[in-house]
Amino acid sequence: EDVYDVKAIEARWGSYWEEAGTFVPLDDGSRERRYVLDMFPYPSGDLHMGHAEAFAMGDVVSRHWRHCGYDVMHPIGWDSFGLPAENAAIKNNQHPAEWTYKNIETQAGSFKRYAISADWNRRLHTSDPEYYRWTQWLFLELFKNGLAYRKDSPVNWCPKDQTVLANEQVVNGKCERCGTEVTKKSLNQWYFKITDFADRLLDEMDQLEGHWPDRVLSMQRNWIGRSHGAHVRFGIQAAGEQPAHDVTVFTTRPDTLFGATFMVVAVDALLAAELVTPGQREAFEAYRESVKVLSDIERQSSEREKTGVFLGRTAINPLSGEEIPVWASDYVLADYGTGAIMAVPAHDQRDLDFARAMDLPVRVVLETGEENPAESGVATVGEGKLVNSGELDGLNKAEAIAQAIGIVESKGLGEATTTYRLRDWLVSRQRFWGAPIPVIHCEHCGEVAVPDEQLPVRLPDNLRGEALSPKGQSPLAAAEDWVNVACPSCGGAAKRDTDTMDTFVDSSWYYLRFASPQSSTAAFDAEAVKNWLPVGQYVGGVEHAILHLLYSRFITKVLQHLGHLDFPEPFSALLNQGQVLNGGKAMSKSLGNGVNLGEQLDEFGVDAIRTTMVFASPPEDDVDWADVAPHAMQKFLARAWRLANDVTSEPGVDPATGAKAVRSATHKALHDALELLDAGKFNVVIARTMELVNAARKAIDGEIGGADPAVREAVETVTLLLSLVAPYTAEDMWARLGHEPSVANVPWPAVDETLLVEDSVTAVVQIRGKIRAKLEVPADISEEELRELALGDEAVKRSVGDAEIVKVIVRAPKLVSLVVK
Ligand code: ANZ
Ligand code: ZN
């Protein structure tokens, strides 16, 4: 029959690939290995359009590489710890595992239907004890090597709900759920020392240049935020007092030291409370109270009116000896630099805004030719020469920076330094559904690592429903028989740590686990990791551009540092696919513009949806579902599929005996497709495939006919190209063409370069306006070549005879005109 029956075709091949093990890598070294990885999903409900987009893109890469002859590993797993499962469990009086594993099954079914070329044997779930046993091992590796530590730190606290709130859960200073005023509470929390690796995280990004999107690299750079500058110490005094102590500021602009007209200390820094004089204390405390509820982003917003309070003291400029007032404000952050700045309003906009609000002086020290900031309200930041700056006068900015650092260093009042925006990674959570932190607290021995043979520290399975609701400490604290253990070191009574790990820890190493997912003796098998890693192509959304990628890079570097790995970067290449929008907006419940993936698959078939996703735009661009036409795509697939029925030659006949025009079209499509795939222009590959489908159809319906071996070659090539995006259709065509499955393992045919030459055209040679010769020339002939050909032609020579050629006009590829006399 000649009807493209999507349902029948899906049913025919639906379970074939998994049963045949089509996508299980050989892993025997007979082929070069390549690793393609999609960011693994979180099991919230079924797959959605975003998954469909991301996984369609990753599958193009994976299938392309398989056709190129690589042994491809394309694994799949689930990031299955996390809060939504816990919230669902509280609501439904369940254990979080129930919700989690039910959703995983649903998603796995959808992935299979979606025909992702995944190796299902490597499937993993981060919430399996077999997995989190190794997450705990990883924690202990950091702990034992001084890279995991505990410290007190302030958290957002809702006194009514008795719970810690993430920054996103604090709305206008109030608890998102109950509206109670949020306070800060100090909690003892675990941190990973990612700051120790800040330089490596920055510098080793060089090797990712050109392989990761530029914007991701710059987001990582900004997040780490390395600033070169200086620490400069200012003496402090109150009226009539001797300098009490020093305050050190961090500045990236020591050249502007003579322009510092006041100092600002972060209002919430301990230092501010120490510095404030008794007379100013009341005003200070009132101010501090008023800014407590603001987030860092609000505090630093340039939109907000600057606020602050005078601390009653002056600071002494170490270069000029000038006395300047010391203020406290919220625009200076307590945990960046030293929490104190020298304010140079002429050349720093924030300082200028503050100076204008508080009526403080503005002094230009770098003459840039711009308008005076005191009048314009705009700080000047250009290049120029130093003025009003004593011994720095006349220097340019770079010279003055070096000179100023030299002077403060020689006086012992400061030194060059580097500061980072990056903070240590807070990894402990007071929640249940995560990997328990494998530490035991003993009064005698302190923090003791759970011995390796006692791992995993399993989550208790008797907690469910209400028992999981947050009570200011981890729900695990209530499981007394779980908490109370013997100290592994002294045998005395001790308690387990009741916090669980941030789920970013789970996902910071899963790409390693995929190399040997069943290993029960190690987190990863060294040999397997050597064979498969780093990941050749990582695919996922830009929402993970910072944290997940940074943490994964950090953990890889730690493991390399500790001798477990021999490469510094986990992901050699990164692709950020775009979002799927509807009507130009992200799909959301509140907008009511959601599109259900399952319904789309039911209506148009898997292949049409996948092909639509890939065809709609370059992979990194958004797809607006309001603008696409899966119905038309289904028609195109049907048209392609019918070609396979109309090929009447047997497989294996040399296509060289077939129609040359068809062969040219085929090899041009193949050639272009390879270049386009390497360049990541997957959408254009589909456009080329469409052209080839048209060429093949024309040949079959015209004089050439379906028996020509060049037509078979064309249709087999269509099949191959379609297998990148439309696996069911392609597999069915392949079978109809008389081949064994699977088309996924068919090598790309070699491109015959001689077939790529453009068709020839006819050039005419005119002499005195009359056509004297016609030449068959390549369409892309150069002016020079055409001129030579024309002048060397026998008929032309004859016509010219003894006359003198005074001028040759060449219009390649069609015309040569000779002026003779
Ligand atoms: C004087 C100065 C003059 C500054 C000037 C800038 C321009 P980045 O590049 O982001 O590292 N600063 C230092 N610590 C701060 C804190 N805790 N909160 C807010 N601002 C802080 O920025 C470094 C600059 O930001 C430092 O250099 C300091 O202001 C300010 F024409 O010192 B500068
Ligand atoms: Zn002990």
TrEMBL record:
Residue numbers of motif 'KMSKS' region? 586-590
Q: Name one GO cellular component term.
A: cytosol
Q: Specify the Aminoacyl-tRNA synthetase class Ia domain's residue ranges.
A: 422-625
Give the Leucyl-tRNA synthetase editing domain ranges.
221-404
Q: Quote the CDD domains the UniProt record gives.
A: Anticodon_Ia_Leu_BEm, LeuRS_core
Reading the lineage from the top rank, the first entry is Bacteria
Q: Which InterPro entries match?
A: aa-tRNA-synth_I_CS (IPR001412), aa-tRNA-synth_Ia (IPR002300), Leu-tRNA-ligase (IPR002302), Leu_tRNA-synth_edit (IPR025709), M/V/L/I-tRNA-synth_anticd-bd (IPR013155), Methionyl/Leucyl_tRNA_Synth (IPR015413), Rossmann-like_a/b/a_fold (IPR014729), tRNAsynth_Ia_anticodon-bd (IPR009080)
Q: Does the keyword Cytoplasm apply?
A: yes
Query: Cross-referenced Pfam families, in alphabetical order?
Result: Anticodon_1, tRNA-synt_1, tRNA-synt_1_2, tRNA-synt_1g
The record's principal subcellular location, in a coarse class, is cytoplasm
Query: Where is this gene product found?
Result: Cytoplasm
Keywords, comma-separated and alphabetical: Aminoacyl-tRNA synthetase, ATP-binding, Cytoplasm, Ligase, Nucleotide-binding, Protein biosynthesis
Name one molecular function that GO assigns to this entry: ATP binding
Q: Name one GO biological process term.
A: leucyl-tRNA aminoacylation
What top-tier enzyme class does this entry carry? ligase
Write down the EC number.
6.1.1.4
Reaction(s) catalysed by this chain, per the record, are: tRNA(Leu) + L-leucine + ATP = L-leucyl-tRNA(Leu) + AMP + diphosphate
Where, in this chain's numbering, is ATP bound? Answer: K589
State the span of motif ('HIGH' region): 41-51
The question of whether Nucleotide-binding is a record keyword is answered with yes
The cross-references to HAMAP family, in alphabetical order and at most eight, read: Leu_tRNA_synth_B
Protein name per UniProt: Leucine--tRNA ligase
